[in-house]
Design brief:
This protein has 234 residues and is of the alpha+beta class. It folds into two domains: 108 residues, LON domain-like (Archaeosine Trna-guanine Transglycosylase, Chain: A, domain 4, Roll); 90 residues, no CATH class. 32% of the residues lie in helices and 20% in strands. It contains six helices and six strands. Strands 1, 2, 3, 4, 5 and 6 form a six-stranded antiparallel beta sheet that branches. Helix 2 packs antiparallel against helix 3 and helix 4 packs across helix 6. The radius of gyration is 18 Å and the shape is globular. The C terminus is likely disordered.
Amino acid sequence: MSGDESRLEPGMTAHPSAPALDLSLERVPLFPLPRAVLLPHTLLPLHVFEPRYLALIRDLLAGDGVVGVPMLGPGWEPEYDGRPPLVPVMGVGRLLRHKQREDGRFDVLIGGMVRARIVDELEVGAPYRVVRAEALPEPEGPELPALERPVREIRGRLVRMAGQRPDARAELLALANDRRCVREMIDVLAGMALRTPAERQAYLETDRLSRRAEMVLSVVIEHTSMPDEHMPEA
């Protein structure tokens, strides 16, 4: 495989801050993965070594860095070297950091920006796949009141979790007190709390923000109900 989530090397830590307002999805190169899901406002570290994806990284560095990370669909294994099936809803982000090794391989960091759906695949003559996609809409005012209860409870649970996790206390309290953007907070929490690809993909595909908040809340409740020695790492 070409990419797996891995620990970042020194000097590669970053936070996705590039604005999504100028994001064009008319031509999105893809880095499909079997077990990784890119959520908005989260970071995905990858080690890249396949020739087609080394070419992708070089092109991203020469261009705007926008890349889609769809999960491979059921039955992908025998078709992996060709065009295996893709799950149509994916995360789209930007290449934020890179480090090229002496053997030509790359360690990269991708910052998630938007949820998107693949519309159709383009024939562009590149060794990697390229699609046209559309951003999935995010709710505005009418749904926000439905967020008050789960968000309030999430904040309270984060404070409790901070007391159980002194190693992550500062980060958890910062999230609990963050009033900038509820959607961003929920996405960041989802990146921390949702552990399996299936959970993360289900979150990505859920249109209602209030339902995504409930998904995160259920996991946070589970975490804060555990004995301290069983608390997951943040």
